[in-house]
Design a protein that fits this description.
binds zinc ion; 3 helices; mainly beta; single chain; ten-stranded antiparallel beta sheet; 38% strand; 394 residues; five-stranded antiparallel beta sheet
Amino acid sequence: MTIARPFSVAPFLFASLTLMAPFAVGRAQVSENLTPLLLAVQDAPVPFMGSDGQVHLVYELGMTNFSSAEIAVEKVEVVGDGFVLQTLDTAAVAGRLQPAGLRESAGTLAKSNHALLFLNVALAPGNKVPAELSHRVSLRVSAAPAGHQELSESGGATTVDKRSVALIGPPLDGERYIAADSCCDATRHTRAALPVNGRVWVAQRYAVDWEQMDAGGHIYTGPREKLESYAIFGQPVLAVANALVVSVIDGQPEQTPGSYPSNIALDAADGNSIILDLGEKRYALYAHLQPGSIKVHRGEKVHLGQLIGLVGDTGNSIVPHLHFQVTDGPSSLASNGLPYEISDFEVTGKSHGTEAFDQAESNGTPLPVTLLSPPRTVKGAMPLDQMIISFAGH
Ligand SMILES: [Zn+2]
C-alpha cells in the first residue's frame, strides 16, 4: 500500500496552493499556505515587573513539525500589536527550543516532533504592554521540494493575559539571599514543563530556589554534608500574605546535603511543604522545610509576615534551600506558574551566573558577586535570577 506523504508527493501542491484561491469561483478569497510548523501558545503571558525595572512577558511558543523531515527554525520574531518586540536569531532559537520531554535545547525539530520555545520578552521602561502577540518564523523545511524549503510563517497568536499580579510580602527575612534559578532565562524552573494529568504544565515557571551567603560569601562553611553548615538552614519562613493554609505536608526526613536523593516519589518531591491560598486563584508553595518545623495547619488563616516554618533540606533537594512559587492551583505540579511581585526588597548585587553559583554551592567557595553600589531599593517586582537580595529591616 502506498500512503501519500505530504511534501514527498507534492512539489506541485506546495508551489501552487497560494496561486489557486483567488481564481476559484465560489470559494472564500483566502490564500492557503502550507504551514508545516504549527505554532500555538497554550498559556498566555501575564506581564509583571522584574527587579531590572523591565516588564517581562514569559511564555512558551509550542511548535509542532507536521512534516516528514527535519525543520530548522532560523529566526523568530515576536510581534506585539503589529510591532516587532524581539528577534531571535538562529543561535538564540537554538538555546531556547526544547523538544517535548527533553531538557536540552536545539534549533531543529525532528520530523513529526513537538517542542516548546521558551520566550522572555522584556519591555524597556515606558514601552506599552501589547494586547496581542503573534510570531513570524523563518524555517528551512527539509521535506519541501528543492527551491521551496525556505519558508516564513506567522502564528501562535495570543491575547496577553492582563490579570492582576499578586503583590506579596517577602518569604524570608534577612540579607544576602540569592534568587537562584529564578525568572527568566535560567532553565531549571522556567523550563520545567511537565505532562501531568493529561496536559503540559509549567508550575515552576516563576519559582525561586532561595539560598543564602554568609558574610564571607559562602553558601556553606564546614562539612558539606552537614545541614548546619548552610547559611540558610533553619531560617524562618514567612507567610507572604494574609492567606488560608490549604495544604501541609510534614514528616519527610532531611536529606544529606551534597547529592540528590535517589528514587524519590513524585508526591514526596516537595518534602515538607505548605501551600497558601492567596485569593483570586493564586497559591503560594513553600517546599523542602525542616521536619516538625511547620507551625500551621490546613484550614488555618495566617497573616502577612507570620512565621510558618523553617528552611530545611527535605524532598528532592540537594542542599538546604527554600523553593517558593506561585501558581493558579493548589498543586505543586498540575498548576500553572504565575508571576508575583514582592512589595519591598533591596538588590545588593548579582552573582556571576548559574555556573558560578553551582560551583560555589558545590565547593563551598565564595560566590563571585558584582555588588551594586549603592544597593537598589525595589518596590513591587520579582527578584530575577541570581540577584542578591536583602529583605525588610536589613
Ligand atoms: Zn526549586
